[in-house]
Design brief:
The chain is an alpha/beta fold and 210 residues long. The protein has helices spanning 14-27, 50-61, 72-75, 82-93, 104-108, 116-122, 140-149, 155-158, 177-185, 196-205, and strands spanning 2-7, 31-36, 67-69, 98-103, 124-129, 165-169. Strand 2 (31-36), helix 2 and strand 3 form a beta-alpha-beta unit. The longest helix has 14 residues, at 14-27.
Length: 210
């Protein structure tokens, strides 16, 4: 079973890496594919060009078995829509179970994504949640979707290629790419918030400086 984690990764940090490992181990994934987007739709555009974000990702995950960088969104022109990415992956993986990993905040807005029901037909959803935190769903259509597709156990994801929604507890790390960029712009070091190999690129390329 393959996990998919998309994002700007601008820059990649331990918050991304630790939670991805939690999901890989907790759900029983063979691998997690980190897919940096080309052009954002629901967020600000990346500050750093795709090739450099890709290089930081490759260095960050180099020593973790099962972590893979996938550059298909960087190779595709135009806006980066997850339904297009999953369609491409499904062509490669055929009927192998595929899991889209996303945070609780992203899940709350899932029905506003392009073709959300097609996404669920292409992949399972694994929604990351903080320890001892039950996701509250206020939107009635999303609540009905969850009632129809919620998985009680990870085994349900292994038994079908797509279509289930599982909540997975992950380590809570209060780290964000935005905070890292703000620290650097203010003249402070982001050391211990991200891998040393990534920090070296930030310093060499003088990224995010005010």
């Amino acid at each position: 079973m393959i996990g998919v984690l998309g994002g700007t990764f601008d820059p990649i940090h331990f918050g991304h890496l630790r939670t991805a490992l939690d999901v890989m181990q907790g759900v029983g994934l063979a691998e997690v594919r980190f897919i940096p987007l080309h052009r954002a739709v629901h967020r600000d555009q990346p500050r750093v060009a795709g090739p450099l974000r890709l290089r930081m990702l490759q260095l960050a995950i180099a020593e973790q078995p099962g972590f893979v960088v996938d550059d298909r969104e960087l190779q595709r022109q135009g806006d980066s829509y997850m339904v297009d990415t999953l369609t491409s992956l499904r062509e490669d993986l055929e009927q192998r179970p595929l899991c889209l990993i996303l945070g609780g905040d992203a899940f709350e807005h899932f029905l506003s994504w392009r073709q959300p029901l097609d996404i669920l037909r292409l992949a399972h959803l694994v929604v990351m949640q903080r320890p001892r935190h039950e996701q509250r769903i206020d939107d009635p259509p999303l609540r009905r979707l969850l009632e129809d597709h919620r998985a009680a156990h990870r085994d349900e994801l292994h038994q079908a290629p797509a279509g289930r929604i599982l909540f997975q507890t992950v380590t809570q790390l209060s780290i964000s790419s935005t905070k890292i960029r703000e620290l650097i712009a203010a003249g402070y070091s982001p050391r211990y918030l991200l891998p040393e190999s990534v920090l070296q690129i930030l310093e060499t390329e003088r990224l995010y400086r005010g």
